[in-house]
Give the backbone structure.
Amino acid sequence: MKHITLQRGKEKSLQRFHPWVFSGAIAKKDKGLADGDIVEVYDFENQYLATGHYHNSSTCVKVFSFTQVTPDEAFWKQKIQYAVNFRKQLGLLDNPQTTAFRLVNGEGDHLPGLIIDWFDGNVVIQFHSYGMFLLRDTFVKVLLNIFGSRIRSIYDKSTATLPEVPGFTPEDQLLYGTFDDVLVRENGIPYFIDIIRGQKTGFFLDQRESRKLVGEYSANRKVLNLFCYTGGFSAYALAGGAAHVDSVDISKKAIEYVERNIAEMGADFLKKHSSYAENVFDFFEHVPDASYDVIVLDPPAFAKHHKVKEQGIKGYRNLNRKAFQKVKKGGFLFTFSCSQAISQEDFQTIVFSAAAMEGKSVRVLRHLEAGPDHPVDIFHPEGSYLKGMLVYVEN
């Protein structure tokens, strides 16, 4: 196993179990070190610190063990099994009412660079590091060993997430089995999943808890779901007894899935639902102010990197201002940011400033985050990317 030695004093973050090593901390590294290699990291006094995958980038090592290990198939099986057992503790395995959830959540499961989502036996793997990608066949074996015939398919969907490696061009591909239409349930609500063409791994599993909360606030209310994707929040609002739900997304394909998912719930729900394949800002222009009792605002990441943070803040603030205009007095706004560059404090300031600019008095009822199948390593707070707020609009 190749070695990396850190500069004197740069070992402290690893001693605090943060799972990343940055290139600026390195004093020397073995010759011939290549992207994806497994390396052991040592301090300046040649004391072992951690083992992880190397990549020639600013984040040059992603640590998967803080003890010296032999990273063979048995090692990776133990790591995956630990993540599976945790989902069992959460009541997510063998639950016919919820058949879609995150099985492995990167650093949150001490497997940085690896995401695995479960869609009723259809498994989607997303690699965020080349080192984990090189173990792809091992993970297929491990998953089949753990789950056996319960697995219908395994699909690698990493084209958009793998880092650049010279001479390597990733392709999404089916690794095992077959799948056609994938229908899952979440708290009993049906959703068709577009694994191949859908965003992320096909569905935003991290919003399950917030979707449920929207349903609890929707009875007899008019609801607007913006950036609705395939209608996750819309379905919960209808199941919760909403008087009417409007779903808006710029993607016509997403809107087709919204309508399909609502139709799967039943004809009575279709009558209470309208969908719009339209830019959200354009939709705002022809909607009267104070039109909705509940608004869900769940936009894409406006600030994926700190370089565009200020631009992202402006985008979120403008959207929230528009939402405050359209929500009724005594209404509720569920507002979210999935931008890693925007902190919880940043986001709260954005929402408060948007409310102040619109002359709205608001109260915070809940701070919202990803569900428990998206655990965050306490030593890696950067893993808490999703933040949201439920606010009550007093005037």
Summary: The chain is about 30% helix and 30% strand.
